[in-house]
Amino acid sequence: MPRVAAVPATGLMKVLYRLARRRFGAVPEPMEIIAHHRGLLMANGMHELIAEKVSRTLPASARELAVYRVAQRLGCSWCVDFGTMLQRLEGLDVERLQHIDAYAEHPAYTDRERLAIAYADAMTADPVTVTDADVADLTAAFGEKGVIELTYHIGLENMRARVNSALGIVDQGFSTGEACRVPTTR
């Protein structure tokens, strides 16, 4: 159970929740929690939409695998759940996620995907362990714009996962398609 109660669906929130439910099948619980601070809710929503819209340099598989890896490494079950759904909706092979711990040698991953996952590990480590050689390899694989996009999304997922974990937000059933059964208010 989250450490902060969800904001009920009234007024503006009713409209925003309806839009989220239409897009995702249920209202994402982080949205219901952050709704306590309307300014941050709006800032977060706009930021997420813009970041999604402009992120077209990297192959979706490399970006989504790196983001998923961050969620997994930080133990954010909500992010793992939601990220699995996003990969499924992108038409990506979600079955290979069960082998992500063996990404370095597992045949389900391409060399470029391995670079992205390793970079997610290095950026998520405490302290960060990214090297000049890592960035050089990524630049050769994705270009400078791709490195910036990957770095940004890994950093963004670090923030999401840490916020959700701190607030006690856990998986919601998005990955299994069961999200529509989750109540949007408590």
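The above is record 1. Record 2 follows with the same two-line structure.
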Amino acid sequence: MSVPLAAPDPTLQSFGQDPWWLIGGKVLAIFVFLVLTVLLSMWVERRIIGRMQLRVGPNRAGPFGLLQGLADGVKLALKEDIVPRQVDKVVFVLAPVVSAVPAFVSFIIIPFGPTVSIFGHQTPLQGTDLPVAVLLVLAMASMGAYGIVLAGWSSMSPYSLLGGLRSAAQIISYEIAMGLSFVAVFLFAGTMSTTGIVNAQADRWFAVMLLPSFLVYVVTMMGESNRIPFDLPEGEGELVGGFHTEYSSLKFAMFFLAEYINLATLSALATTLFLGGWRAPAPISTVWEGANSGWWPVLWFLAKLWLFIFFFVWLRGSLPRVRYDQLMKLGWKILMPFSLGWILLVATIRGLRNEGHDMTQVAIWAAVVIGAVLLLSIAWDLVGRGRGDGGEIVPDLDGGAAPEAAGGFPVPPLDAPHYHGVAREGADVTAHKEVASGSH
């Protein structure tokens, strides 16, 4: 009995040849998949965090509480839509749309599987592909940031405005590091096409070959998703609800939808770029020849996708919210310099390998240099902490000087007689009175 030959792996030339009904079916399938993923992600998150906190979680709406997400969506749709008087109504209504639509667009370039037969047509299990497909995801993520910033600005609320400003700074910081983590993948794959990147991982996943890039991406995708521990734009303990404080009903639901779709998109992108995409893990692919053909790869892709979603949920239930200065320091002072150094190292190794040099010596010298740089950075950080995090002296209004903040942030030292113009009991307040009367 002859075994049918598997269809070749898709390439860029495999796209643009489908009939209109097949293209429309793919778009509809991706839309339905994202909506169902959002509903299931909400249920999974509540159940997992409930178990972590020794409680039950949703168990009333539907069997095992599976319809809880659908019930929440219906509730939000039927709630009264409250629009404050002072808001910029056009921008206020447009902001949730700007935030939600790019989240759907990003998933169009994610490959779900190889070439399969659908009603007699050979087609890749992917919406479409581009020579710069990964850059499309970064562009859509940047567009989504506009929705958050516009929501904060148009709400005419200080809490919303602060949340929008935080989101802008956070996304800028972490998108740069995220883009740098992709560069090493592009160097090894030789393409920015998601199809080409998956094909380049036929022998070994990039998560193994480019482990530092993978780790940087894992951190940056948490900052990009605005979730705990990096949910500063909507920190309930500081900003009530952040950028969406003034939103209700369907407008709030669109922000909610965009957050969970971004969760799925970031997880799918990590799967595509670093975990071999739809390809089966090594033990399965080596034992079973048909593991990477037909519809089976969809199963491997979904397993990797949900593994990342579980990772997001686990972090939310385990880690506290970081301080804003810690968030910015991690992005600008650690992730970006590290990513730039790693890219230089990868490019150098690739160039020397192409010229036929001994890579053992190169790897040893690279490890020595990296270790020296890490030791110097740790020593510099320890010296800075010993000086009181910069050792700056804040001048007081009476001509004196406040002592250094004793490692505390943002609480001033308790032993300071004057600090930023606030006089403690028993201190001389003459200078403050003179300043207030305009004598100085």
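Residues 12-355 form one domain.
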